[in-house]
Design brief:
By secondary structure, the protein is an alpha/beta fold. The chain folds into two domains: 2-147, translation initiation factor eif-2b, domain 1 (Four Helix Bundle (Hemerythrin (Met), subunit A)), CATH 1.20.120; 148-362, Translation initiation factor eif-2b, domain 2 (Rossmann fold). 41% of the residues lie in helices and 17% in strands. The longest helix is centred in the middle third of the chain and has 31 residues, at 124-154. The two termini are 30 Å apart.
């Protein structure tokens, strides 16, 4: 299959499968050792899966949340419109409380809410149909956005040589509708014979790099090797990294970007060694309501994620642990933000404002 000049493989395992009655999610907690789907038939089950990281990655969370609202509509068997609208409101409220940092979640739910607001005069079955269609549109548009991000990012790298890319966490097919943001750029580089290899940060404490990114790359035959997070500086110092490309869960108006914990340290080292540090992210991850990264809410997760690895205890239960899931990379450490509408270079605030205002006028 080919879209926008990019060849896309049909992935053997899909992040999620929607059949208009249920939503099946690949359990990312079990990868790469076991490929098992969790079947959701209610919005509450979807909310649990987002909260428990069965599914993760900002774009994927947004798409899955939209399908959660669609499931609430599908599951309503009555005819009373007020009751139906109440159920939809409850689903949106419950899903919005699952993960506080990823702004794509709120962006997708806001789209679902607007569908309801615009169609309140219609009958229940018609509103239901439009909610289902909107969720499906969000998925399709996410894939298109990912492809454009990959194409735009690939153009940053000169032809005639191959690059060694370091990435953190998982911003690939598993974090989106099937192609990826940071890994979308990696895939585009590989397709255009500009990629030598990928250096994959393991990404403690949840190991999204070691378990998920490396698994995706292995599936496609893209050369890579895994390192522990504290090895990144070693390879940069040796001249074995040409660029860092990561995703983002929320970007403030000034360009500060929240991403998986450990990204901030990578940006500091990349700046020290003079390496380009790119954020690859859809415009839906930009929160223009926030002036800077200081306003981005940071999710704190369970101590158990640090005390255990794949269910094996490595730290005694009585020891105190802190587990922030994200950190914020200042705009001053970011070379550029790669989006579906093009690559944004500093000064970020003026350019982000221009591009997002332009999109709002188009609507």
């Amino acid at each position: 299959m080919e879209k926008n000049g990019c060849k896309i493989k049909d992935y053997r395992v899909k992040t999620f499968i929607w059949d208009r009655e249920s939503l099946s999610l690949i359990d990312q907690r079990r990868l790469p050792f076991e490929e098992k789907y969790v079947v959701c038939r209610t919005y509450k089950e979807v909310a649990d899966c987002i909260r428990d990281m069965v599914v993760r990655g900002a774009p994927a969370i947004g798409v899955v949340a939209a399908y959660g609202v669609a499931l609430a509509a599908v599951g309503f068997k009555g005819k009373d419109k007020d009751e139906f609208l109440s159920v939809i409101d409850e689903s949106i409220e419950a899903l919005s409380a699952t993960r506080p940092t990823a702004v794509n979640l709120f962006w997708a739910l806001d789209r679902m809410k607007k569908v309801v607001e615009k169609n309140k005069s219609l009958e229940v079955q018609e509103i239901r149909a439009r909610l289902i269609q909107e969720a499906e549109d969000i998925e399709k548009q996410d894939l298109e956005v990912n492809l454009r991000i990959g194409n735009n990012g690939e153009k940053l790298f000169e032809s005639g040589r191959k690059f060694r890319i370091l990435t953190h966490c998982n911003a690939g097919a598993l974090a989106t509708s099937g192609y990826g943001t940071a890994l979308g750029v990696v895939r585009a580089l590989a397709q255009n014979e500009k990629l030598e290899l990928v250096i994959v940060d393991e990404t403690r404490p949840y190991l999204q790099g070691a378990r998920l990114t490396s698994w995706e790359l292995y599936q496609e035959g893209i050369p890579f090797f895994v390192i522990t997070d504290n090895m990144a500086g070693y390879f940069m110092a040796r001249g074995e990294v040409d660029a860092v490309i990561v995703g983002a869960d929320r970007i403030a108006l000034n360009g500060d970007a929240a991403n998986k914990i450990g990204t901030l340290g990578l940006s500091i080292m990349a700046k020290y060694y003079g390496l380009p540090f790119y954020i690859a992210s859809p415009l839906s991850s930009i929160d223009t309501n926030l002036e800077s990264g200081k306003e981005i809410p940071i999710e704190n997760r369970s101590e158990e994620e640090v005390k255990k690895i794949m269910g094996v205890q490595i730290i005694p239960s009585y020891m105190a642990v802190r587990n922030p899931a994200f950190d914020v990379t200042p705009a001053s450490n970011i070379t550029a933000i790669i989006t579906e509408e093009g690559v944004i270079f500093p000064p970020f605030k003026e350019k982000i404002s221009a591009i997002t205002e332009g999109r709002s006028h188009e609507k």
